[in-house]
Design brief:
mainly alpha, 5 helices, globular
Length: about 130
């Protein structure tokens, strides 16, 4: 798989994923060696992508794994936010910015309403995930 040309993003969420990786590194969440290892593992585990169309999907998957592995958040919180963003996207008219509302966090099963972990990292990563195709 080849990466997209330097400085070129196909969608705004790709630039956001890139910026979030840089910001989390600058905050000391992970080293560039850790990032390269996580991204490399995601690329290796994925189906071949000769056009690079899904390159930033791998970035996002690597970010999700790193924030969970580094205890910046946990998998349950990531899933909770991912579900909430999906609900928000479903109820939002086309062309209108997607905004989370408290009701977006209502689960189909109220038993999982309290998830632990940092919501800041989860919200950042999952808001990017919600905006990708």
């Amino acid at each position: 798989m080849s990466a997209p040309e330097a400085g070129v993003f196909r969608e705004p969420w790709e630039a956001q994923a890139f910026a979030l990786a840089v910001a989390l590194h600058e905050r000391g969440l992970f080293t560039w060696a850790e990032w390269a290892s996580a991204l490399g593992a995601e690329i290796a585990a994925a189906d071949p992508d000769p056009t690079g169309e899904h390159y930033y999907h791998r970035w996002l998957a690597a970010l999700e794994r790193l924030v969970a592995d580094k205890d910046a958040t946990d998998a349950a919180t990531l899933a909770r936010y991912r579900d909430a963003w999906e609900r928000a996207a479903e109820r939002t008219p086309h062309g209108t910015p997607i905004e989370l509302a408290p009701g977006d966090f209502q689960t189909r099963s109220a038993a999982s309403s309290s998830a632990g972990g940092s919501t800041e990292a989860a919200e950042s990563v999952t808001s990017i995930a919600a905006s990708r195709p």
